Predict the structure.
Amino acid sequence: MSDAGGIKGMNRFLIGAGTAAMLATGAAVPAGAQQGAPLEGRVGRLESEMRAVQRKVFPNGAAQMVEPQIAPSTPAPSPVGVPASSAVADLSSRVTSLEQQMASMTGQIELTQHKLRMLEEQFTAYRTATDAKLAAGAAPASPVPAADVAATGDVRVPTAPRPAPTPTPTPAAAVAGVEKPDTGDAAEDAYLYGYRLWAAKKYPEAQAQLKKMVADFPKSRRASFAQNLLGRAYLDDGKPSLASIAFYDNYKKYPDGERAPDSLFYLGSALMKLNKPADACKVYGELTDVYGDKISAGMKADVAKARTTAKCK
């Protein structure tokens, strides 16, 4: 067989395969439309593949299209089921529009989920860092160089040496002069003792006592009192970050407790000390929405004054 005859035979093979591929692609248009594959992309991909085959068969640049030579005994496949070009274009346009709408909705959902994950991660990190600080506070504090204290301003320098706070202070040594009550009610005694320590400005000892009271008597009505007073002990001790956590925990754990409204109010105060007036305004709004008909007239006046200070809208 001559070279010309071999090339013609190869042309017939390639063109026949390309024609069959095109017919198969046209027959699969409806299914492809249901799956969201663009028709133009399929046609372009097929043309690119055919050009690649031609370049490989005609390396000298003679990549012209060759007319098919089909033997009479081989009937051409009937293009049954192939929609008209106008119907295909209309279907492709409608599918493209739906895909764009779905992509927009998916993007919005993913953005919202991302924001929620970021908020959860920030809150978790905040709680973890605070728990670490609380755990470190139970151990003896290491000396801090005066230069570091002056540079950061985050460490309070005591005017006189004092023992590190312990979770369970001993009345005889660490809190001398503060009488421990004995009413016969263990929960009441635990709260009153923490209150007396706070009133005596022994804030680390009061914090330890009040935390112990809440842990030992979580179902007592005094638990709400103790958790709120724990936040105030932190706030008075110059620790607004720990105070904000204590107030928030009281509101979440004991929303019906007698000191839940007070905790929301003082939470706003702690946020103001942390230079977060926008968050403080949200807290004051929560306080008014949840406990507006339960708080006293005096607290309502205090909330109004606090909102003015925070420049709430």
Remarks:
- The chain has a mean pLDDT of 73.
- The chain has twelve helices and no strands.
